[in-house]
Amino acid sequence: MTNPKPDEYYMRQAMKLARKGEALGEVPIGCVIVYDGKIIGRGYNRRKTDKSTLSHAELIAIKKADKKIGDWRLEDCTLYVTLEPCQMCAGAIVQARIPRVVMGCKNPKAGCAGSILDLFHEPRFNHQVEVTEGVLEEECSEMLSGFFRALRLRLKTEAGEENEVPDSELKQNNPE
Ligand SMILES: [Zn+2]
Fold first, then answer.
1. How far is CA 157 from CA 153, 163, 164, 165, in A?
2. How far apart are CA 95 and CA 65, in angstroms?
3. At the N or C end, where does the chain have fewer CB atoms within 10 A?
4. What is the pLDDT of residues 1-36, one digit of tens each?
5. CA torsion sign, 24 to 16 to 112 to 124?
6. Which of 78, 156, 17, 7 is nearest to 169 (CA)?
7. Tens of pLDDT, residues 118-158
8. Are 100 and 127 in contact (CB under 8 A)?
9. Distance CA 170, CA 176 (A)
10. Residues 92, 43: Cα–Cα separation, whole Å
11. Which positions are annotated as active-site residues?
12. Ligand 1 center to residue 45 CA distance, Å?
């Protein structure tokens, strides 16, 4: 299969996974890991569903890719994720020796690929990660803001028209 825009193609696959999470009421974040033109790991945020701090899209995809490759090292793989990874996932990406990450939108409040920290270009670590950002950025960002718009509306309806939704309710659902 010739693919003129492989980054966009794989980002769309990550977005599809994010939508699966959204259907479960999760903040929509999706991830795929590609090796030799094939997707070998898929994941989407399942933090609420699994009741697990560790159920971030990237970690789930890394676990699956490890299994498929039969190693903890994911050299020669590219990881696609719809939202800039948090410190935990960026750490796992460095640990997995993944050489390249492609991101949709940035996460100014929690991102560790440049927003808050940059774990991918830390010279004191023995592994650096090449980053391509802004692939389908608007669509990835719109997917998240759409989710929060709908959530706000739902909470407002539940709270009754005249009541403001407390910030704490929304914060609980913040991505990453
Ligand atoms: Zn994460």
1. 6, 9, 10, 9
2. 14
3. N
4. 567 799 999 999 999 999 999 999 999 999 999 999
5. positive
6. 156
7. 999 999 999 999 999 999 999 999 999 999 999 999 999 98
8. no
9. 13
10. 14
11. 58
12. 9
Which two structure tokens, joined as six digits, stand for 124? 């004191």
- Cα dihedral sign, 40-141-95-176: negative
What spacing in Å lies between the alpha carbon of 160 and ligand 1's midpoint?
Answer: 33
| Strand arrangement of the beta sheet that strand 130-132 belongs to | 38-44, 30-35, 77-83, 100-105, 130-132
What is this structure's pTM?
Answer: 0.90
Q: Distance from the CA of 58 to the center of ligand 1, in angstroms?
A: 6
Spatial distance between the Cα atoms of 65 and 59, rounded to a whole number of angstroms? 10
Give the residue from 83, 46, 41, 43 showing the smallest Cα distance to 66: 41
Distance 9 CA to ligand 1 centre (A): 22
Q: Is 99 left (phi over 0), alpha (psi -120 to 50) or beta?
A: alpha
